[in-house]
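Q&A log
Question type: sequence-to-structure
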Amino acid sequence: MSTLNHRRADAVVTVLDAHGRPLADTDVVVAQESHAFLFGNIGFDFVALANQEGEAGERPAFGGASVGSAAALADLWLDVFNSATLPFYWGGFERVRGRPDTARLLTAARWFADRGVAVKGHPLAWHTVCAPWLLDLTTDEIADVQDARIRREVADFAGVIDTWDVINEVVIMPVFDKEPNGLTRLAWERGRIPTIRLAFDAARQTNPSATLLLNDFDMSTAYECLIEGVLEAGIQVDAIGLQSHMHQGYWGEEKTLRILDRFARFGLPLHLTETTLLSGDLMPAHIEDLNDHQVSSWPSTPEGEARQADELERHYRTLVGHPAVQAATYWGITDEGAWLGAPAGLVRADGTPKPAYDALRRLVKDEWWQGPTTVRTSSEGRVPVSGFRGTYSVDGTPVELATDGEVVVRLGG
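Response status: OK
Response body:
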């Protein structure tokens, strides 16, 4: 069992008063405020809520909870998660060319940021849910508008969204045959790596300080080979995105660790960008494309919920225990309007938390969390602070616990 020392820091905090003098022999309250590790979930459910729009029963454009349910879900969401993924699927974001949904998404991004949540955009380039009007363009024109679209979004959201899944599922992109789209044609004619370079160059040049991900569901050696080619081509990737939609069953610790170790060899942070575990019947193993499994009803069951809670806890312990993993995003908080209708949410359609929600909250906010503790400063105004890396407060004044060593905090300053 991992000791999780790679997640922790031991620091000595020197506490100064408002005048800059050491606060000696005084009781202070030390409390954790946030995790450095990114515990994420999608924020699709809250776009309409943030914009104060829609009827009570109206569904958001990309599935998820109805507008009327979102307010109650927000408290559950914010009590566990500190990172949100917002939808930038081109076919929904810019249904009509030249009319992007910038204002609504920016309002939603700020809604999360105001609540201390880091925000990621997903994705800037993908062959699915692609803008249909691209089909009328030549390949060169598609490249030009894709470049312009990336630069526009990265510029418009800079400072609020500075992390992006730049391009999604490129392993399959050139040979994708489920529906005609402009990006598959671009990747087929120009190649995977030039298509990736186009997307990353546009994002990097627009916001050099952004965190840019390459993301895929394909955990085979094909993705490893693609990453090798991308890095050898000199394209700067900041993190590797790994999807883990386990609709056909939990991977298990052994398989998960093998995957993490294989992709950690590139020396880049790993983000588990899309994770799901079911609390109902599993999808049949013979299904190759998860989207092909269509059923009229897919309920959550008591037995499935117990299994989901056990597997989710084991999965998160595995991820947090691996030093290369920097972020883990669960794909959906609720079964209401869930992707593919699957019972993958952490909250039932009626708004009540499943055991899996309670299990994750217990890890994030109990076992891996330091609650308020009263400690007395030394004669030099020093107190030891030890815990999971993140933001702490000393008598309400924030202090970052990022590495072992010395930290100074000035109260009232």
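Response note: The first helix runs from residue 47 to 50.
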